[in-house]
Design goal:
- A hairpin with a 5-residue loop joins strand 13 (326-329) and strand 14.
- By secondary structure, this protein is an alpha+beta fold.
- Helix 6 packs antiparallel against helix 9.
- The chain has nine helices and 14 strands.
- The chain has helices at residues 3-15, 27-37, 86-100, 120-137, 190-200, 216-225, 238-250, 265-274, 296-304; strands spanning 58-62, 65-74, 80-81, 84-85, 104-115, 140-149, 157-167, 181-184, 228-232, 253-257, 288-291, 313-319, 326-329, 335-337.
- The chain has two domains: 39-167, PurM-like, N-terminal domain (60s Ribosomal Protein L30, Chain: A); 181-337, PurM-like C-terminal domain (Phosphoribosyl-aminoimidazole Synthetase, Chain A, domain 2), CATH 3.90.650.
- The strands form three sheets. The protein has a seven-stranded mixed sheet with strand order 9-11-8-12-10-13-14. A five-stranded mixed sheet has the order 1-2-7-5-6, covered by helices on one side. Strands 3-4 form a two-stranded antiparallel sheet.
């Protein structure tokens, strides 16, 4: 068989199989969702945001209110990590997705799939961490499901949470206009890099911890300022995926200034050692907010008045060129595309 034929056969085989990178929040995941999932579903929008919008969740119109729904599953490894565990992550992840759409989170469902032989004491610790986040944000776990799988059939524990929130005005990712400012609520890369460093035991000393945290209290204050045109927590795919989604869906360009991006020295050092772009790494306690220019400074001040937003910065702006693209002006003064990730440089972190 000719080399080109072997290459084509290998490529066709990959196109027929699910890879880890298909679930990583990058371009491969986007293609899988559009080509293999959405086209096989009968999509009917019930509110101002539907499945086809591919936002953090969707909404159902109910009178003058929008009921916002978001769901997510968590397969993080390790399940206990510096700064949290899979229970805290599951609560924060779904509560934050609801918050990013401008809705007050009110209820959560909890589905747990556990491997036979799992320590009950560890399960209780995980549930207690999830409950602590819910109590802090005024969210109630209202329903759930528990399944146990045979040993060796599962990776210890998988959690799914579905959240419900209420708002009068849903915030979508597609409403940016030229002149809007882009605000990042804190340092990037903390979650993914801390888990990678801890999981792989690379041996360098660091106090770096996951940034996993509920963001509703910060977002509630931000919503009172007004002028928000887009909002997302940059989880899978990191900052780069979020900004490119914003630009593509809003049909604008985005200019980012690297010197303005808050990032910890430990993340920079670890990223260089691992050969990872920290802008493509998952975060679990940060928000990227598009806001009208006339509200940007007030928004920044409000974010900085909160614990989760104390390191917030205006990192860029929306422009009327480079449509659908994000450009980053580097610390060296050059400009390049901030490419969205194809897969995930740090798998199994959310």
């Amino acid at each position: 068989m000719e080399k080109s034929e072997k290459s084509n056969k290998h490529e066709n085989l990959l196109n027929m199989q699910i890879l880890l990178s298909h679930g990583a929040g990058g371009e491969m995941m986007n293609k899988l969702i559009s080509d293999s999932i959405l086209k096989n579903l009968s999509v009917r929008d019930l509110g101002k945001v539907g499945l086809s919008d591919l936002d953090d969740g969707a909404s159902i119109s109910l009178g003058d209110k929008e009921i916002v729904i978001s769901t997510d599953s968590y397969i993080v490894s390790p399940i206990f990590f510096p700064g949290g565990n899979i229970g805290k992550l599951a609560a924060c992840g779904t509560i934050n997705d609801i918050s990013m759409m401008g809705a007050k989170p009110i209820a959560l469902s909890l589905a747990v799939i556990i491997e036979e032989g799992f320590e009950i004491s560890e399960l209780e610790c995980i549930i207690q961490s999830l409950d602590e986040v819910c109590r802090d944000t005024g969210v109630s776990v209202v329903t759930g499901d528990t399944k146990v799988m045979q040993k060796g059939k599962l990776d210890k524990i998988i959690i799914n949470t579905t959240g419900i929130g209420i708002t009068e005005q849903v915030i979508k990712d597609s409403n940016l206009t030229p002149g809007d400012k882009i605000i990042l609520s804190g340092t990037v890369g903390d979650h993914g890099i801390s888990l990678m460093s801890f999981r792989e035991e690379f041996g360098f000393e660091t106090t770096l911890q996951s940034d996993v945290a509920p963001l509703w209290h910060m977002i509630e204050k931000a919503l009172k300022v007004g002028g928000i045109t887009a909002m997302r927590d940059p989880t899978r795919g990191g900052l780069a995926a979020t900004l490119n989604d914003f630009a593509r869906r809003s049909k604008t360009g985005i200019m980012i200034y690297e010197e303005k991006i808050p990032i910890k020295p430990e993340v920079v050092a670890a990223s260089r050692m691992l050969g990872i772009d920290p802008y493509t790494v998952a975060n679990e306690g940060k928000a990227v907010i598009g806001v009208r220019a006339d509200r940007a400074q007030e928004m920044l001040a409000v974010l900085r008045s909160t614990e989760q937003g104390k390191n917030a910065e205006i990192i860029g702006e929306v422009i009327d060129r480079y449509y659908g693209k994000t450009i980053i002006e580097t610390t060296a003064g050059s400009r390049r595309l901030m490419e969205p990730p194809i897969g995930d440089p740090v798998p199994r972190v959310c």
